[in-house]
Amino acid sequence: MPEPTVGDVTAGDVPVVSAADATVGLAADYFQSYSVVGLLAVVGVLFVAVAFGAGRLLRPVVPTPEKLLTYECGVDPVGEGWAHTQVRYYVYAFLYVIFAVDSIFLFPWATVFADPGYGATTLVEMFIFLGFLAVGLLYAYKKGVLSWT
C-alpha cells in the first residue's frame, strides 16, 4: 500500500482549513457579490454613453440664428433678460413644499403607531409636529400670504 502524501485525503480524514484560508474564502465571496453590482454599473454607464454617442452622430447639425436665441415658453425674448417676479409665487411654492414634507412624515408615523409600545409616544410626537405646522400655517394666514390678490 502506498504512503499517503500531503495532498491525499481519505474517507476518514477531515481536511484542516486554516484561519487565513477561511478569511480568503470569505473575502472572495464578499467581493464576488459586489462584482455583479460593479458589472451592472459599468453596463449602465456604457449604455448611456453609447446612446449619447449615437445621438450625437445621427442628429443633424444646422445652427441658425433662431435656434441660438433664448427660448422661454414659445415667446420671443423682448427687452432685457431680467424681469420682476412677484414673491407670492415663491411663497406658495414654499408652503406646498412644507405640507408635502408633512405628508411624507405621516406615512411612517402611521406604520410606527401600529407597533406595540410606540403608540402613545408616537401620537404625542406627531401632534407636536402637526402643531408646528399649524403654527406656520396660522402665521402665513395672519401675514396675508394665503390671499390671492
Tell me about this structure.
The protein is mostly helical and 149 residues long. The chain has helices spanning 19-58, 88-113, 119-142. Helix 2 (88-113) runs antiparallel to helix 3 (119-142). The longest helix is centred in the first third of the chain and has 40 residues, at 19-58. The radius of gyration is 33 Å and the shape is flat. The termini are far apart. The mean pLDDT is 76.
Set down the secondary structure blueprint.
Blueprint: H1 19-58, H2 88-113, H3 119-142
Helix pairs in contact: 2-3
Q: What brief labels describe this structure?
A:
0% strand, flat, single chain, 149 residues, mainly alpha
Number of strands: 0
Number of helices: 3
Principal-axis shape equals flat
Summarize model confidence as the mean pLDDT.
76
Radius of gyration: 33 Å
**Percentage of residues in strands:** under 5%
Largest sheet: none
- Through-space gap between termini: 105 Å
Output the helix-strand order. Answer: HHH
Regions with little confidence, pLDDT below 50 for 5+ residues: none
The SS-based structural class is mainly alpha
Percent of residues in helical segments?
55-70%
Summarize the entry for a quick read.
By secondary structure, the chain is mostly helical. The chain is about 60% helix and about 0% strand.
